[in-house]
Amino acid sequence: MKSRRRPYSEQRPTDIGDGVWSVPVPIPGNPLGYTLIYAIESPSGPVLVDAGWNHPDAWLALRDGLSTAGMDIREVRGVVVTHFHPDHAGLAGQVRQESGAWVAMHEADVALIKNLHEIEDDVRRDSQAGMLRRAGANTIEVEEVTAHRMRPPALPDRILHDRDLIDLPGRRLRTVWTPGHTPGHVCLHLEDTGRIFTGDHVLPGITPHIGIYPYDRTDVDPLGDFLGSLEKVADLGMLEALPAHEWTFQDAAARARAIGAHHEEKLLQLAALLAEAGEPLTIWEVAARMTWNRPWEDLPSMLRGMAASEAAAHLRTLEVRGVIGRTPGVDPVRFAVHS
Ligand SMILES: [Zn+2]
Ligand SMILES: [Zn+2]
């Protein structure tokens, strides 16, 4: 496939038809470059899908981009946030302040944000450090990863559930709950056009981060959820995809199937890796042996933490499927294939 990757500097607000505009908003200092905010026209003011990173440059890009589209940020009716990540939810609070818009998000991500608002920083750091140690991280890695803290986004004032219709007069914008990348990630099906806003769930060139936090959790299976959510999108049939990063593309279902196949392949490789090891491995050891976009030795601690979380999500799915198990009574946690 010809690469359509273009830097933020080459992105422009674009009328993509059916009363929908895409407005690129920069993510300062992030290789993803930008979030595509979508603005849907309505007689009572535009509704936005996502809002962008909370940064003055991003705010200006959003305000001016909407103005290019003939829309006034002070007249925004509502913001539907696909998930709580800062490149999506970051500016939602400021848009609400400026316009009186409602902000809507799925209940599972609302619960996460509430938690982030309530947790004390030292409690957060202790529990994160414990998680890293139990996964086999070393002292330096634990210190470097726990040093970071993100300011949580504003709490939404409307809570979404699967299949809810969004408050958008004259249009049919349907919530499609697609947990995996986050527990409350949603796609939004614009049913009167055959298009779907896919957030980070289905992207044309990359696959979203699927992690598990804490890494050794046994009550959830985010990758299993993600694979189910990919099928859910595929089952909607051929829809044009309007993703939050990269570029729009024709067939969301085909891409969803391809991403699912990619993870099934990764699961097979992981099971083989554990079988070859001949002894139970920690999450950290597994992550160090998996293939990433650069050698493990070159990954900074923060990215090692994300890689470990991704490894842990794949381990958990293999465990749920009965392919592998964790060795009882050991710390750090260790996994092995069932003999
Ligand atoms: Zn995300
Ligand atoms: Zn994103």
Q: What does it look like?
A:
This protein has 339 residues and is α/β, with parallel strands linked by helices. The chain has one domain: Ribonuclease Z/Hydroxyacylglutathione hydrolase-like (Metallo-beta-lactamase, Chain A, 4-Layer Sandwich), CATH 3.60.15.10. 37% of the residues lie in helices and 17% in strands. The protein contains ten helices and 14 strands. The strands form three sheets. A seven-stranded mixed sheet has the order 1-2-3-4-5-6-7. Strands 8-9-10-11 form a four-stranded mixed sheet, covered by helices on one side. Strand 9 and strand 10 form a beta hairpin. The longest helix has 26 residues, at 252-277. The radius of gyration is 20 Å and the shape is globular. The site of one zinc ion (ZN) has 6 residues, from helix 2.
Features:
Metallo-beta-lactamase, Chain A; alpha/beta; four-stranded mixed β-sheet; seven-stranded mixed β-sheet; 37% helix; binds zinc ion; single chain; 339 residues
What is the domain total for the residues?
1
Bound molecules: zinc ion
| CATH superfamily descriptor | Ribonuclease Z/Hydroxyacylglutathione hydrolase-like
Q: Order of strands in the sheet with the most strands? A: 1-2-3-4-5-6-7
Distance between the termini: 41 Å
Uncertain runs are none
N-to-C SSE series?
A: EEEEHEHHEHHHEEEEHEHEHHEE
- Please tell me the overall pLDDT: 95
Strand content: 15-25%
Q: What structural category characterises the helix and strand content?
A: alpha/beta
